[in-house]
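User: Predict the complex.
Assistant: Input components as received:
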Amino acid sequence: MNKKVVQLTLFLAIIASISGGLLSFVNSFTAPIINENAIAAEKVTLQLIFPNTEEFVPVAEFEDETGSILAIFEAKGAGYAYKVSRMGYANPIVMMVGISNDAKIVGLQVLELADTPGYGMKVGEPAFINSVVGKGTTDGLDLISGSTVSSTAAVTAINAARTHFNTLKGIDDDGSGGVITPPTPELGETIALNSETATLITGNITNTVVNGDETVYTVESNGYRVAEGYEGAKPNVFKVTVNTATKTVVSLEVLEMNDTVGIGDKIEHEVFLSQFVGLSLEDENSSVDIVSGSTRTSISAIRAVVTTIGK
Amino acid sequence: MSLFKNLSNGLVKENPVFALYLGLCSVLAVSNTISNALGMSVAVIMVLTVSNVIISALRKIIPSEIRIPVYIVVIATLVKIVEMLMQAYTPELYTALGVFIPLIVVNCIILGRAEAFASKNSVGASAIDGIGMGLGYTAGIFMLASIRQLFATGALSLINPFNQAVIFDITIIPTQFTIPLFAQPAGAFITFAVLAALLEVYKQAGEKPAKKGA
C-alpha cells in the first residue's frame, strides 16, 4: 500500500516537473516579447518622464487599495512610472506619474482629461503640473481653485502612486504631507457695498434675532443657479451678524450653499469670509473682493450683507 | 474505424459543440467576431491534438488512480504554453479572448477526449481524433460567429492576428438594418439554439432511411 502511494506521488511529481521545465523554457523566450508589448504602447510617455532610461520593465503584481493604479513600470536605475486613473468631474482622468528613486515626482503626463474647459481642464495646465513635479513622495499637493473635483481626483490618483512607492521603498509617510490641503481661492474683482452690482437685487431676511447690540439676520440671497433659472434651484442662505451700535459686520457665515458644488462653495473659504469682519456698513468706501471663478455666488453673499443695511 | 470516419466523427455525428454540447462557455462568449472565433479555434485544436497525443502515448504508464490529475497537468501545461505564445505574438487576440484562454484548461471537450478516446486508442488515432474534434469545434464556433457578426455589424471580416492587417471585410447588410442583439450573450444563445435544432433535424433525416433499410 505504502509503496503504491510513493509510486503515484513520484509519477505525479515527475509529470509536474517536466511540465514546469517546459513552461520555463517557453517563458524564457516569450517573456521579453511580452514585456516589450506591454511597454510599446506607453514607451513614448515613459521616455518623456525618464528621458535617459532605455529599459522599462512592467511590474506585473502590485497592491493598491484605491484601485487607481492601472499599471506600474520600473525605469531601470531611475525610478518608477505609474499609470493612474481616477474619475474626474465628468470623465476619468488618466495620468502617468514618474517617481525617481530619490523619492521625488519627476514627471506628470496627463494622458486623458475631458472635464469642463476653464475649470477641470486646469489639471492639464502647466501651473498644476509644475506644482506637482518636484514634490517629494510625502509632501502635500495643492488642489486647484476652481476645479476642486478634478484636481482632487488627480491628487488622489497621484497619492495612490506615492503610497505604493513609499511602501516599496519603506518610506514612512506620517500623513502630514499626504493630507490634501484645501484650495485657497484666488480673489478677483473688488465690489463696493454701495455699487449697483451689490444693491441691484436685495436678499430676503427670513429671521432676525436681536441680542443686545448684536443682531443676527438669516438672509436668503439668489445665487448663480437661481439667476440662471436652474430647475429646483434654491437661493443661498447666509447668517449675517451685525453690530447695530457701530454699524459694522461682526461675522458672515454660509448656512446653505445651493450653487454648483466645487465652484460656488469656494466662497466658504476664510479668505473670502474674513473680509466682512469689521466691515463698516455706513462707510461709502466699504468693499470686498469676490472669489475668482465663483463671481455670482460671491455677489449673492455681498447682497445678503447689503440687505441688512438700515434694517 | 477508418481514418476518414474517425475524422468526420468529430465534425458531424459527435460534433462537440452542437451534438455533445461541450465547451459551450467559450463558444458562446468569443463567437462575437470571426477573428476571435478562429483564434480561439486554433488554440483549442492545438491543445486538443497535442494533449490527445501525449496522453495516448503515456496511456500505458499512467496509473489509473491518478489519471485525471495527470490529464489536468498535461492540459494545463499546454494551455499555459499557448497562452504565453499568444500573449507574445498575437497580443491583440490575447486581449480580445481574455480569460477564455486560461479557461481552455477546463474546457470539457479536451478532458472529455482524453478520458473517452486518447486513453484507450493509439497515438495516431488520437491525433486524428483531436484534429477532428478540434475542426468540429471550429466549424461550430465559426458558424455561430459568422451569423452573429453578420447580423450584429452587417459585415464579415477577418483580421490577421499577427500584424492586425485586415484580410477581408465585406459589408453585406447596411448598418441601419443591423441587429445589435446578436452581439449580446442573448443573441449567442438564440443563434446557438437555432443551429443545434437544424443539426438535429439533419441527423434525424439521415437516420430514418437507414432504419427502414434494416
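The first helix of chain B runs from residue 3 to 11.
Let me know if you want any component modeled separately.
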